[in-house]
Amino acid sequence: MTEMTYLRAISDGLRTEMRDDERVLLMGEDIGVYGGAFKVTDGFIEEFGEGRVMDTPLAESGIVGTAVGAAVVGLRPVCEMQFADFVSCGFDQIINVAGKMLYRQGLPVNITIRLPSGGGFSGGPFHSQNPEAWFMHSPGLKVVAPSTAEDAKGLIIASIRDPNPVIYMEHKNLYRRVKGEVPEGSYETPFQARVAREGNDLVVITYGAMVHTALEATADLDGASIMVLDLRSLVPLDEEAILNAVHHCSKVVVVDEANQTCAAGAQVSALIAERGFEDLDGPVLRVASPDVPIPFSPPLEAAVLPSVDRVREACRQLLEY
Amino acid sequence: MATSSTDVPTGPSTPADENPSAHLTVDDRVGLLRAMLSMRAVEERAMNLYRQGKVPGSFYDGFGQEAVSVGATWAMAAADRLCVLHRDLGAHIVRGVEPSVILSQYMGRAAGITSGRDGNVHFGDYRTGCVGMVSMLPDMMLVAAGMAMAFKLRNEARCALTWFGDGSTSRGDFHEAMNWAGVQHLPVIFVLENNQFAYSTPIKQQFAVNPVERAAAYGFPGVSVDGNDAEAMFEATRIARERAISGGGPTLIEAVTMRMHGHGAHDDMKYVPKALVEEWRQKDPIDRQSARLRGLGVDVDALVKEVKAEVDAAAKAALAGPMPDPATATDRLFAPRDADEILLEDGAAPWSGFGGSEP
C-alpha cells in the first residue's frame, strides 16, 4: 500500500496496465510531451515512447474514431478528452460507432475514454460538466465513476481490460483533494457499488465527488446513522446493492453533481420507485445541480453545485418525515 | 510515430496514363466482371423482394456504381481491412460474403450478417476483414485511419481502405480524418465515391472546390479515376496500396460515377435530369467490362447465366430462412470478459498478384 492522490492513482493504474499489456496505448491532446492538462500522464512518453503516448491533433471525433479502428485490429486505446465537456465533439463516434458495433456486427470495441469532469473551481460552462447521463442513455457503453484513489486505479485497469467501450469519469475536483492507500501492482475494482459508510436510518446514494460531499454532510447529523452508497459504476448499475440499501434504511437521498433532469440519480430513483417502493418510509429526495449551465463566478457556481449544506438539509428533511 | 509528411506531393499520379490492365490476368478481368454481375443480380433480386414487401424499410443499391467497390477491393490483400459504404456491395462479394447471407441481411432474417439488427448494406462481416458503415457519414474514414494507425505503430505492411460519398465531404469528420492521416502519414486509402448527388443535393451545392484537390492541402495525393471502369479503379487502388504499405502515406481516390437509381427505393429521383441518366447509362461499368472480355473471347453470356442461377439459389435459401427470434432483441449488448477476443479477420483476396485465393 502506498498513499497517493486520486490523480496519481489514475496514473499508477495506466502505467501498470501499459507495462503489463503492450496493446495499451494512450491518445489525447497534450498528453505526451506536456504530460496532459492535469499531468495524469506526466513522464509517460519517456517510459513508453510517442507511439504509445500519442499527442493527437485537436480532434475529439478523430481521437475516438481512430481509437475504434485501432481497437478492432487489436490495440487497446485509452482516449483522454482534455475536459469531459469536449466529448460532445466526439459524441457521434462514441454513440453510433463504438456503442453499436458489437450489437450490430458482433465486433467488440475495446476502448476506454477518460473524461475529466465536474466543477468546483470556476471552470465555467465548458470546463465543469458532468455528462455521464448522456452515455448512460446510449446502449452499448459502460460508465464508471471512481470516488477514491484505490478505486480510481482499480477501475481504470478494469476499464482497459473490459472488452467494451467504457466511459471513465474522473472528477477533477478529486484529483489532488482526495488521497488514499492504494495497493501496489495490478488489481481490478469491480463495476459494482460499495458501501462508503454503514448506517441504518437513511441512505445517501451517489458517486464520484459527491461521495465526499455526502460523507461530510452526514458525518455528524444529529446523531442519525446514515449509510453512504458509492455507486462506482453507472452502467451497469448495481441494482441489487441499491435495493438492499433501500431495504435496510427505508429512507433515501440521491445526490448528483450533474444537472438534475435525467441524471444518473433519476434512474436510481426510478428503480427504487419500481422495485423498492414497499421498503420506503418516505419520498425519495434528490439533490442535484439545477438545469442550468455551470456558471463561472464563485458565488454563482456555489449556488448551483450540490453543497454539504444542501445534502444535510435534504437528509434532515427526510429523517423528520 | 506521427512522422509528418514534409514533402507535399506536387501533383496527382495519373494511373490512366498507364495500361490499367497491366497487372490483371484474364482470370482477374473475368473475376471483376463476375463480382459486378453478382452485385447487380443480388441487388436486382433484393429490389424485387422489396417490392414484394419482403425487404423491410427502404432499399438502397449501387446500380451503375459496381466498378467502384469491386475494382478497389480487388487490389486489397487478405490482411488489409475495409470499411464499406452502402453502395459498395461488391466489396463484400469480393471479400467472400455469400449472396444468400446478403439477401438474408436485406430481409432482416436471422441468417443475415447482423441477424436482423441492422438493415441494407449496414453490415460488415468481421470474418472478412470488413467493418460495416453507420449512417452518419463519413464516420468510417476515422475508423479506417485508426486501423492504419495501428498497422503503422506495429510496423505491419498492411493498409486500410474506406469509401464515402460526395456529400460526406462537407462534414467535419472528413477534415479530421484527412488531417489525421496526413499528419501521421498513415497507410490508408480514402475512396471518394462521387456519384453526383447526396440524396437530392447536387455536388455544386456541396462544395466549391472538388475534394480531390483538397488532398494536397493535407499533404498527400488525390487522384481522379473513372469510377465506371473496374480496371481503372483496381489500378488506382493498387498504386495507392503500394504507396501505403511502402511508407508513402495516404491517398485520396475520387471515383467519378453516377447514382443511377434514387437515394433509396422510395425516391423517384425526379430532381435528376433524364439526359444525365441517359448519358451515364452509356458508361455502364458492366457493359464496358463485358465488351472488353467478349473481345478476348470470353463467354460472357454463360457467366451471366451462372451468376443468375447462383442468385436464384441464394434467394431461395434466404427466403427459407427464419426471421430472428424476438427473444434475442436484447442479447449481445456487451461482450463478456471471459470470451475469446474477437478481432477483424482476413478476407478473400482474389487478385492474381496475391496468389489468387478464391473468394
Give a quick precis of the structure.
By secondary structure, chain A is of the alpha/beta class. Chain A has helices at 6-20, 44-48, 60-72, 91-98, 101-105, 132-136, 149-161, 209-218, 239-249, 264-275, 298-304, 308-319, and strands at residues 2-5, 24-28, 53-55, 76-80, 112-117, 142-144, 166-171, 179-182, 194-197, 202-206, 226-230, 233-235, 252-259, 285-289. In chain A, helix 7 (149-161) links the parallel strand 6 (142-144) and strand 7 (166-171).
What would you note in describing this structure?
The complex is a heterodimer of chains A (321) and B (359). Chain A has 321 residues and is of the alpha/beta class. Chain A contains twelve helices and 14 strands. In chain A, the strands form three sheets. In chain A, strands 3-2-4-5-7-6-12 form a seven-stranded mixed β-sheet, sandwiched between helices. Chain A has a five-stranded mixed β-sheet with strand order 9-11-10-13-14, sandwiched between helices. Chain A has a two-stranded antiparallel ribbon with strand order 1-8. Chain A is globular, with a radius of gyration of 19 Å. Chain B is of the alpha/beta class and 359 residues long. In chain B, the strands form two sheets. A six-stranded parallel β-sheet of chain B has the order 2-1-3-4-8-7, with helices on both faces. Chain B has a two-stranded antiparallel sheet with strand order 5-6. In chain B, α1 crosses α11. Chain B starts with 25 loop residues before the first helix and ends in a 39-residue tail after the last helix. At the A-B interface, α3, α4 and α5 of A face α5 and α6 of B.
